[in-house]
Every structure is written in structure tokens, then in C-alpha cells.
Amino acid sequence: SSPGGLILLLSILGALGLGDPGPLEDVVIDRYYIPKICLREVQMGDFIRYHYNGTFKDGKKFDSSYDRGATVAGVVGVGRLITGMDRGLQGMCVNERRHLIVPPHLGYGSIGVAGLIPPDATLYFDVVMLDIWNKNDKLQITTLSKPERCNRTVENSDFVRYHYNGTLLDGTPFDSSYSKDSTYDTYVGTGWLIKGMDQGLLGMCAGEKRSIIIPPFLAYGEKGYRTVIPPQASLVFSVLLVDFHNPKDGVFLEHLEVPESCKRRAVTGDFVRYHYNGTLMDGTLFDSSYSRNQTYNTYIGKGYIIPGMDQGLQGVCMGERRRVVIPPHLAYGENGAGDKIPGSAVLIFDVHIIDFHNPEDPVEIETVYRPEDCNVTTRDRDFIRYHYNCSLLDGTKLFSSHDYEKPQEVTLGANKVIEGLNSGLLNMCTGERRVLIIPPHLGHGESGARGVPGSAVLRFEVELISMEEGVPEGYLFIWHGEPPTSLYEQMDLNKDGEIPADEFSTFIKTQVAEGKGRLMPSSDPEKVIADMFRNQDRNQDGKITSEELKLKSDEDQEKIHEEL
Asked: Where is the signal peptide (predicted)?
């Protein structure tokens, strides 16, 4: 081997105390701690930051950066340091530790430093390397993880919310948002951040995680920051972008599922019932109507809900599933809401429209089938029998007459069914089939009914089975022509001056049979006759006297007379 190598070898042995082989030719380097990962090695012209202790051979300390409480920073290899130091620091990694032995001719020589270092002193240094950078460095960005879906990335003037851990290059932590329990929120590219951060956040997706290494000239430079960031320090940020938006953003819509047939779309002033899941951009669920097991019901476009939702529900179809992405200035702004929605958060609503209507809506009638020979149709007060299926607009079945032995029976206009169904059964022929869409104000209203949610639009399929002509309201029986002049005498069949129930019943049935009059239609004519009898038997003694018997038309006249 070359003589130089031999001398180095001998000098190391000498340093270990095997006799003194004479003065050292070069610096002796002992790399006593080398980190597993070497981020970069010191090269000529690099700017470095390090700590050291300097001693003489006998262990007496002559200098220490630790004692001064500040790291040393400077450029290596350009003659600013003693030559032994310039050489001894070459190739060092961040966090590497070295013992250096510097002979006098590479130190302070035969002159020394007055009052500090005697002439011809061999110097012993213990050095730890903390930071390395170069004025030609660029930002180093490493993407640690990234969501599969990313339809937008950060641009200048965007407002970002992110979590971060900040360390120096040697791993010393100086700051973290995680300890503060809230994200760091700021504008990008407007000078609010250090230059390296402004650049390092560009192009990020929501949910992306990056490591950003920032050289000091793109960070806090020669000044450092308070006591936590020393002068000329490189910074390492591990950043998780939680969400971002731009102040110019509007509502962003994704149509996930639009029904094929959409006859009508919701507009301002419509009342919408919908289910939703509300999440933050990182997927955190902050609210859900499904968890309450009932829809959210509201007017749209009227300011009852956040502006982004007022806009985002415009034009929805019944049954549509839609994603509405709302920037904070159209949601809960800088303050957020409750403990679930942070300030300046972007909100994502996945909505499913169950139904909507307008308070002005009439009943919508669609005739599915109408017999050709149709001359007689249902009118007010008619007694009808019909079959029906009732469901919500999302297809949920509520009630059906087919679950019972026989069809439903009702007198139209007698307030026995909801208004919308009543009007939807008018002007129908026997055998006709219709589909009725009934808005809640003509149905069960805001409070609903058993099995019917509040404000629900109902869908009825109806089929008219039969109809009978009715009698006017308040009547149980009407004469087709003029009633007999001596009604009581005719009714008193056995002429004993009183009319018991069976006599009354026989008389009425005869009139009906001969077509002289008709009873109010019902499934129980006996009951109608019994009611008539009870009305006439005014003292309830089981028989009608001639004083008691009065026609309804005469009674009504008397009432009017009394009121006049």
C-alpha cells in the first residue's frame, strides 16, 4: 500500500495509545455513529449546520457549540473553516456522529489562537451533523399516499385545510397541527405561507399525503423562527391535505343516478322530501337522515336550508340520487357548525330524492283504461265501490283494498276519504282504471297518518267497480216525483192512528220497489230505514204519530222561517 495509507493506519494505532509515531499527516476520522438512512452526504460547497465539542488531547475543552446553545452554520470546503474541519466533514450524513483528530498543520498551526489554543496543538472534535443544503437545491416532494379518485388538485388562490408534522432535517420536531386538534387553514400562493409550503401544496389531491423537504432559503432563512427553528434550517413537513376549495367555487353536482323517466324536475318553491348522508371531504360522516329513519323535508330555493343545498337540489327528479359538493361560503362558512363541521369545511351530500310537490299542485289524474260504452259517470253524493292500491312515490306499498274480502265503499263528498282521492274518483265510469298522484295538502298533510309519512305525495291505482246514484246531503230518502198528499194515512197501513217501525219499513220498501223514491245508497238499507224512523219518532216511543211525521223539505222551510 502507499506510504500515505500506512501513515494513516499507524496514526490510528498511535491515537489508540500504542506509542507516538510522530505527527499526523491528515485528519483522522472515526465515524462512530452512522444512521441507517442517509438522506444526503456533505459535499464541497454545501451549507451545513452542526453541533460540536472541541478538546485537547488531555480532554480539556476549548470550545463547544452546546455551551453557546446554538448550532454552527456555514459553507464547507471553501476555506471558511480550518482545513482539518473542511476535510473531516466531507461525506457526512445527517445525524452522523464523528470523532475527528486534526493535526496542527490542518488546524491553527504553529501560531495557535491567543489565549485559547496553544501553538502546534492537535485538536479533537466530536461532531454531529444536523442539516445539509445547497443554494442550488429545489423543493423535494415525495407523495406518500394518494386517493384513487382525484378530480381536482390544489392551485394558487385555493383555500386549503391540512394537517402537518414539522421537523428539522435531523428529525427534531418543531410543530404539529395534530396536537392542536384542528387543521391548519390558509390560502395558497398569496404569501401567507413560507415559499416552500406555497409551492409544496400545489397539485395535491384531497386526502393525499406528502413529505415536503424545504431548504432554508424557501423557509425561514437566516432569521429562523422564534426559538423553534434555528437560522439556516431545512424543514421537513409531512402533510395530509384534508380539503380545499376556491372562494370562486359554486356548487358542484354529480348525477349519480337519474331515473329514466323524469316527467318533472323540482324548482324553487317546491317542497322536497329526501334522504341524505353528509360527509366531509375526508369521508367523515357528520350527519345522516337514514340514522333518524325519516326524510328531511323542506322547501327549496327559499333560504330554509344552506344556500348550497338550495341551489344543489334545483332540477332534481323523483327518485334521483345526486351528489352535491358545497364550498364553505355556501355552507357554514368560517365558523362551521356544532362539533361535527369544522370551519371552512367543504361538505358533500349524497341525496336520494323520495318525492316533491308544490303547494299549488292539483291531483294528477292519468286514465289507464276507460270502457268505450261509457255514458254514466260518478258524481258528488254517489255511492261507489272501488278497488285501490296506495303507495309512496318511491314504490313503498302502504294499503290495498285487495287485502280485504270486498272492495272499498264510499259516498262521494261525504268527507270519508282524503280530498284528493275523492276528486280523483269523480267523473269515472264503471270499469275505468286510473292512477292518481295526490299531493299532501289534498292527502294526509304535514303530519301524515298511520303508515303515511308527513308531507308525503301518494300514488293511488283505482278501479271503479260499481256506482249508485246518491241523494243530496242530509237526506236518507228522496221522492222521485211529488210525495203523496196524505202521506200519513197511506203509511198507517192498519189505520190504527200510529205507525210502528215495521209498518214504516214496509211502506218505504214498497215505495222503493215501485220506483217512487230511493234510499240513500249504502251496503245496509235496513240501517238507513231505521235511521229514518228514529228521525221521525221524535219522542222515541217506538211509534210515529201524525204530529211527528214531517218531510225534510218542510222541516227545512220551517227552519228558514224560524231563522227569518
From this structure: 1-19
